[in-house]
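Hey L., structure's done. Input below.
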Amino acid sequence: MSAASRIRQQAFAFMRAVFRRLPLPEATRDRLRNRALSRVGDWSPPPPRGQVRAARRSGRALVRADEAAIGHVPAGLAGTLPSPLPATLVAFYLPQFHPFAQNDAWWGTGFTEWRNVTRALPQFEGHAQPRLPADLGFYDLRNPQVMRDQARLAADHGIGAFCFYFYWFSGQTLMEAPLRQWLADASIALPFCLCWANENWTRRWDGRNQDVLIGQQHTPEDDLAFIAHVAEYLRDRRALKVDGKPMLLVYRPQLLPDPKATAQRWRDWCRNHDIGEIHLAYVQSFERPDPREIGFDSAVEFPPNVVNPTSLSANQLLINPDYAGDVRDWRELAAESLAAPARPYRLHPGVNPGWDNEARRPGRGRVLLHASPRAYGDWLHATIHGRLADTPVDQRLVFINAWNEWAESAVLEPDQRLGHAWLAATRRALQSRQPAPRRPCVVIHAWYLEVLEELLQQVAASGIEARLLVTTTPDRVEAVQAMLQQVGTAAEILAYDNHGRDILPFLHVADRLLNENEDLVLKLHTKRSTHRDNGNQWRQDMLGALLGGERARAMVAAFQADPGLGLVAPAGHLLNAADYVGGNAEALAYLHARLGLPAAKNDAVFAAGSMYWVRLAALRPLLDAHLSPSEFDTERGQIDGTLAHALERLTGATVNAAGFRICDTVTALGGTARTDAAAYPYARPG
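Output:
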């Protein structure tokens, strides 16, 4: 780095520190920030660099973009929609997925956004790129059936309208053909509105003034030409209305010379041309003025813009050693949004299902890590049923960024990794949440069938009422069915490949149960540990501590009495993770970054043997990471050093990161845990 560059970066850091301490109104702060970035944005220091390993273990595959991950949701499993809907969900929609002349000239013949999408590569371990479509495929919007299918899919999952980006440049429109097609198709019933993307279109994909491909020329004459052009959309029977007025959005009103005058011209024109009153809203993409001050009626939140989550760049394990992108924590978006103070003006909340523009900026994109369908659904649900609880239902609009921004990984449409998970989460968010069942679930992984009967008998003898699920391999399903019939026990049987030990099948089931509103689970497996001469004793010792006597009933009662209780291990089997790292150091480092866990602590504990009582919400950091099956090692009889072994050692860290407590059965029931240093008889420290 040159001395001049170093001085500029130091100056930028100093100015930023001073700016953050200034007691400025929000709108003023936004305006000054954007003005400064347009002039000295290139002075900004680069984000921290990730970690480059000398070599990586070949046994763990990179995340595959075309593989169904843990949490993949097939079509048709999302439940029913409430009637009436508690809010109108409006999803931003990008109409760029078709070739047109200007893109041919600027980017090459046949270019569509799909070219960007498919060129993306993972830049660090766990980076899920490229983001590939599933049910709708690499669609071409020139085919009218595509938009019909999109509208049906959206409506089926509770989306109340699309907000189409509209590209108008002083009389010239881009990408309008699909919208005209929608207007002409009477079979599509889904409402819509337009959002004028009134910034320059640049080669940098960021709306700034460098490398302009087609620019804006804002004039009073252009204001009138624009409103006359979009009048047909405002008159359409499907136009989204607010207070009975068709809605029109502007992406960046601050780029207009006089937004208040523009708004007045539009209103006058609509009154004089049989449209009547209109509802003008602007998008809080870069600035957040009071809409009334610029002649508008309302504002629309647009996460992840105008937020700056914690940097996670330095924690990432780089695949590309030259990666210069910026990795941030998506999980902070919801917390900031829900904690924001009420505004004195009309503000339509916004939510976001993720962000990663690596496809548009290879090797230097901005990634918001740790987005998940479940956390997105929580954010949406809290917005509808909490933040807007005092707003009349017919005035509740929530904007989602976005329906199909594939090159920015802001997508609700089905993808190959998670299927319909984002849509299913959207539908669930509209529903009122019901209390979880008070009875627990018991999940047994049956590999050694000669041990299964023992486990079934112990569960039956415990006297608890429970929902029983048994996972096994496809070749053992019939034998498991026969054994269940023999002992007179009803259970759901789920078949998975012999992969990931008992851990991977359990994660598949746990994710499903959490989506089904289950709360408490007893995790068991037919453990034999044939490499040890006391393997059977190990299993029996754990079963006795978890189920023996009245223990099971007492454990259910303990979880019901203590909402902060997350996981209970069998007494004597809660070990210090730092003492049992073994051959798992590399995988543990990867999982800490992948799950977004805090730095490892020396006092972290784990449930040895992987049998325990657990509140499913306590496993959220792990379940919401959506690990891929191919990340788990192929079974070769390993006794240590696999991803499954590493996950076992992260039970305590995972539970604590979710905000819950981990302890053993003695402590959970009011006793005092053993503190002697007796050697653990079933594994050696290392």
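The CA atoms of residues 136 and 577 lie 45 Å apart. Residues 3-21 form the longest helix (19 residues).

-- N.
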